[in-house]
Amino acid sequence: MSTAFLFSHSPFRRMLLLSATAALCLSALAASTPAKADDTLKVAVGQRGSWDTSVSELGQKAGIFKKHGLDLDLLFTQGAGETQQATISGSVDIGIGGGVMGVLSAFEKGAPIRVIGTEINSAGDYWYVPTASPIKTIKDADGATMAYSTNGSSTQAIVLAIIKEHGLTKAKPVATGGPPATFTQVMSGQIDVGWATPPFGIQALEEGKIRILARGNDIKEIREQTNRLLISSAPVLERRKAAIERYMDAYRETVAYMYSDPMALKYYSEIASIPESLAKRVRDEFFTKDMLMPDKIIGMNIIMPAAVSLKYLSAPIPDDKLKVLFQIPPSHQ
């Protein structure tokens, strides 16, 4: 009997054949098993096109959320009030840009709202008039109609703070919706003082069509406090905690990317439909990186009394209840 015959029928040969067959089966099984799909999060974004509200959209374009196993289903609202309602109702998982006083008010009233991060500390918003307006300074706006986006929004809180700071007892705050709708109302004479957040209006400013009358950061109490928040709801946090934590890690990574990678300005110019040079001006003139970092709530000693004074709250919310409201996931990076 030949050596070849003995080897071909040996236990060693049979073991090799079985191993090879098993490997082929495992390979075929792996090929036929679909890859695990990314988790989808529905995200409501207030005021599309602002630098500070573009974190989710920019991170999606750059593949950062994908890297964290997330696919974002983005929808865009007219302001913080709409964003907050969509979040509380459960129609979205995360809301971008909830006004801090509106959030406090909803929580006090028993809404299952939760804060998962800071959207912006301080404010990039500004108030303007047409160049030909007889209103030359903010003091001249006493008796004028002054725009904000929606009830419960951060812009409502800012315009009320501007009125209080400058003693504009006859000024009339008016909800006008987003920047484009507001601009139309201002330029047609329906509203005296409009509001916007960059980049909206910057082109008109450069062309001399409008004048900036006041900035949110002109008001000390606005400059030194958290202005808008990243929000979710208690049921979503309970059900989707791991996905929310990954979202926040990707969010932090995206903010860093926005101030370090030139592609962020290119993507942003496409989102906002503006030249890259104007995109750079918006970022560098109106928004610092620290303003967008999501882990720090500042100025609660200012926010709470102001919320009571402006009738958002009946009384300050005690610390033990604030711990329930603020549920910012720790960084895992």
What does this structure look like?
With 333 residues, the chain is an alpha/beta fold. The protein has helices spanning 3-8, 11-32, 55-61, 64-67, 80-89, 100-108, 154-166, 179-187, 202-206, 220-223, 234-239, 241-258, 262-272, 276-286, 289-292, 300-309, 319-325; strands spanning 39-46, 70-77, 94-99, 113-121, 126-130, 145-148, 172-175, 194-196, 210-215, 226-233. Strands 2-1-3-10-4 form a five-stranded mixed β-sheet, with helices on both faces. A three-stranded antiparallel β-sheet has the order 8-5-9. The termini are far apart.
Descriptive key words:
333 residues, alpha/beta, D-Maltodextrin-Binding Protein, domain 2, five-stranded mixed sheet, three-stranded antiparallel sheet, 18% strand, globular, disordered N terminus
Give a quick summary of the entry.
By secondary structure, the chain is an alpha/beta fold. The chain is built from 17 helices and ten strands.
